Amino acid sequence: MSQSPILLPRPLALRATAAMISILLLGFLQGAQDSHADTTIPVGDLWFCNSSFQNGVCETVITQGETVTWNYASGVTVHNSRECGANCSSPSGTPVWQLPAAPTAAPWTQSFTFNTPGTYLYRCDLHTVAMRGRIVVQAPQSVGGVAELPDVARAPSRSSDSAERGYAALAGGLAAAVAAIAAGAWYAWRRLSRS
Q1: CA 18 – CA 100 distance, rounded (Å)
Q2: Nearest-10 Cα torsion for 152, 159, 42, 107
């Protein structure tokens, strides 16, 4: 009784499968590289985010582990960003951040990384009513299911949307790899069933 040899897929199928696996791995690497985006909040005379937030509250929604950078590029007066605790009208004694330590003239750029989910209120120490903000730090979303996106109309633009592109590349690579593996399995099954 002779055994029929196992036929391997053609070299073209092997190359296609290797290409799909490479795309999948690149998607994983890109997603890991870009998992923490940086959000910049512009600072101006009597506002955070933009001048429409003067005497209002600038809300920024980020994901746990992301960094927020306050950028006071130019202006006539001094400002800072100080976390208030539960109420900016009567701030807590020890702020989570106070950047710079005292209101400072432009230009300055200060950053803080948010490692704990929650809502953080902040203000300028000199302009306690005119300059206020709120940072909402969300826990990372799990993969799969339906996710609600934050209201980005009120949030300042991110300096990079590369994390979203990385996840899209990952999803596309995964879909292509599954399709290539299924096609290779079908091809191998068809070749074996003919012998």
Answers
A1: 51
A2: 170
Domain match, 136 and 53 both:
yes
Is the entire prediction scored with pTM above 0.70?
no
Q: What is the pLDDT of residues 133-172, one digit of tens each?
A: 999 999 998 766 555 555 544 444 444 444 555 666 666 6
Closest among 68, 78, 53 to 132, alpha carbons compared: 53
Domain count, the chain: 2
62 and 19 in a single domain? The answer is no
Beta strands per DSSP E along 114-166 = 118-123, 131-138
Phi, psi of 130 (to 5 degrees): -70, -30
Per-residue exposure over 61-91, b if at least 16 CB sit within 10 Å of its own CB, e if not: bbbebbebebbbeeeeebbbbbbbbeebeeb
